Amino acid sequence: MRVALFPGSFDPFHNGHMEVVERGSRLFDKVVVAAMRNPQKASALFNLSERQELIEASVSHLDNVEIVALSTLVVNLAEEIGANVIIRGLRAVSDFENELQMAQMNRQLSGIDTIFIPTSSEYSFLASRLLREVASYGGNVSKMVPEPIANAILAKFRE
């Protein structure tokens, strides 16, 4: 069985992430999406369990996708779930340098390969950081995220 691991903070999960998951689900027997807390990023919009639930609702149409929360090294989770590869989305050339470094580190640590899936140009501008900022000022991001995420963002900023 070919298993791919797609790790990320996904705060929030957006249509660019969805595209990578959908494409990965066609390429692999199973895709495990791992929502993780990134200590290098500012405070989270959604906690890990909220992200896990929201992503599950967003990908419910895909039978071969599983969602987990990550609190360890990506390579440790990859080994634990029997992943053959890590998949990562690339929006622009600027993403490549950082993603390449992570891929090389993961390969050095565990021997696991990373496969890059470039997003379509319609999603290349999407970044969770930007979506959080726009939403915090009352901007409408509903066309940029799956419906369960849009509803949760609206509810979050009504609080």
UniProtKB/TrEMBL annotation:
PANTHER family: PHOSPHOPANTETHEINE ADENYLYLTRANSFERASE (PTHR21342). Its EC number is 2.7.7.3. Belongs to the bacterial CoaD family. Homohexamer. ATP binds at residues 9-10, 17, 89-91, 99, 123-129. Substrate binds at residues 9, 41, 74, 88. Residues 5-133 form the Cytidyltransferase-like domain. It holds the Pfam family CTP_transf_like. Its cofactor is Mg(2+). GO terms for molecular function: ATP binding; pantetheine-phosphate adenylyltransferase activity. One of its GO terms (biological process) is coenzyme A biosynthetic process. It catalyses: (R)-4'-phosphopantetheine + ATP + H(+) = 3'-dephospho-CoA + diphosphate. InterPro entries: Cyt_trans-like, PPAT, Rossmann-like_a/b/a_fold. GO terms for cellular component: cytoplasm. The record marks 17 as: Transition state stabilizer. It is found in: Cytoplasm. The keyword Transferase applies. This is Phosphopantetheine adenylyltransferase. Pathway: Cofactor biosynthesis; coenzyme A biosynthesis; CoA from (R)-pantothenate: step 4/5. Keywords: ATP-binding, Coenzyme A biosynthesis, Cytoplasm, Magnesium, Nucleotide-binding, Nucleotidyltransferase, Transferase. It is an enzyme of class 2 (transferase). Reversibly transfers an adenylyl group from ATP to 4'-phosphopantetheine, yielding dephospho-CoA (dPCoA) and pyrophosphate.
